[in-house]
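Tokens for chain A. Residues wanted.
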């Protein structure tokens, strides 16, 4: 049976954030709110937790996970960011965007695209997600909480508890979340390319 923490959406309680991070560090799988939808995540490099998430979401080994980062400085440890990419990232983070970039050697191989050394990275604006990342001190390995057979992400923390309390270690109730995933932008090899339209406005990344 998972734990269920009700954390204030604007002023997260540090005591609960510390407890949540301890669960993550002990190999836990956690559901938490972002500025797009709820996400499911685990500690970077935790292969057993990663496989639990794959099983829950029924993902194959080609599905890309996202590294949730606390800020651009942390993002820069895990991705190669040139000057033009940095300008775009600075203008649109934190926010509901996932950026595909060439990965550095800091990224575990199991997270990389099987044919290209790329990784998705994101800096969320949600205060609970930010508090978790600040306390953890490293990115969270995450995917959107869309269950097999569902058309959109789950948004109601009580429904999440009803359906998943036996399958994860912690559910963070941060209030109602949206149902759209983030907008995905590739910054690999030249001009930005919109790979998926989500709740982030794709207009700034389209060629004029």
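Reply:
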């Amino acid at each position: 049976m998972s734990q269920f923490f009700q954390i204030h959406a604007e002023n997260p309680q540090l005591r609960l954030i510390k407890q949540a991070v301890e669960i993550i560090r002990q190999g836990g799988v956690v559901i938490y709110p972002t500025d797009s939808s709820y996400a499911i995540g685990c500690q970077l490099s935790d292969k057993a937790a990663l496989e639990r998430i794959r099983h829950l979401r029924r993902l194959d080994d080609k599905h890309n996970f996202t590294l949730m980062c606390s800020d651009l400085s942390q993002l820069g440890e895990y991705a190669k960011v040139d000057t033009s990419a940095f300008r775009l990232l600075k203008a649109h983070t934190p926010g509901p965007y996932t950026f595909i970039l060439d990965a550095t050697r800091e990224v575990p191989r199991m997270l990389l695209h099987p044919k290209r050394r790329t990784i998705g990275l994101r800096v969320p604006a949600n205060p609970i997600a930010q508090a978790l990342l600040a306390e953890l001190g490293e990115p969270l390995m995450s995917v959107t909480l869309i269950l097999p057979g569902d058309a959109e992400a789950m948004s109601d923390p009580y429904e999440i508890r009803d359906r998943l309390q036996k399958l994860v270690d912690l559910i963070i109730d941060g209030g109602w979340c949206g149902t759209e995933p983030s907008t995905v932008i590739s910054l690999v090899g030249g001009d930005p390319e919109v790979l998926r339209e989500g709740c982030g406005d794709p207009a700034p990344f389209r060629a004029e």
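The longest strand covers residues 38-43. The two ends are 51 Å apart (CA to CA).
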